[in-house]
Amino acid sequence: MKMPHRKVDRYFGKFFSVMVVTIFLTISILSIILYMNFEKIALSQSYDQTMDNLAQTTQEASVMAVTAATFAKQIHSDQNIANLLNFPDLSAQDIDSSIRQLTNYRETSPFIDSIYVYNAESRTFYITSDMSVPSVFSEAEFYDQELSAMLQHVNDYKTLMPIPRKLKIDGLVGNIAERERDTYTFLLYDTLSKKPRKNAVVVNIKETQLQKHIDGSLTNDPTNTFLIDENGTLVTNSWKTPMLTNLKGTPYIDRILRGPDDSGYFAAEVDHVKSLVTYSSPDYLGWRYIRIVPYSVISRNIDSMRIKTLIVAGAILFAGLAISSLLSRRIFSGLNHKLSRLGKLETEQRESVQAMRSEYLRSLLNGYTQMNAGHAAARFERYGIPLDPAQPVRVLLILVDDHLLFVNRYKAEDRKLLLYGVLNIAQELFAAAGIPAAAADIGDEQAAVLLQMSGEAEGDRERCRDYAAWIQTAVSEYLKLSVTVSSSLSGPGIEAVHALYQQAVEASYTWVFSGAGSHIEAEEVEQNKTKRYEYPLQKEKQMIDELMLGRIADVRQLFREIIIDTADYTYISYQFAVSHLTFALQNALRIIRQHSPSNEDWEFINLHLYMPHSRAETMGQFIERCMSLFDQLENQMNERKKSRQDELPCRIKKILDERYADPNLSLDMLADELGMSATYLGRVFKQHTLQTILGYIQEVRMSRVRELLLHTDAPVGEIAERAGFSNSPYFFKAFKKYNGVTPAEYRRTGRDRTDEDGVESGIAAE
Question: What is the pTM of this model?
Answer without folding.
Answer: 0.42
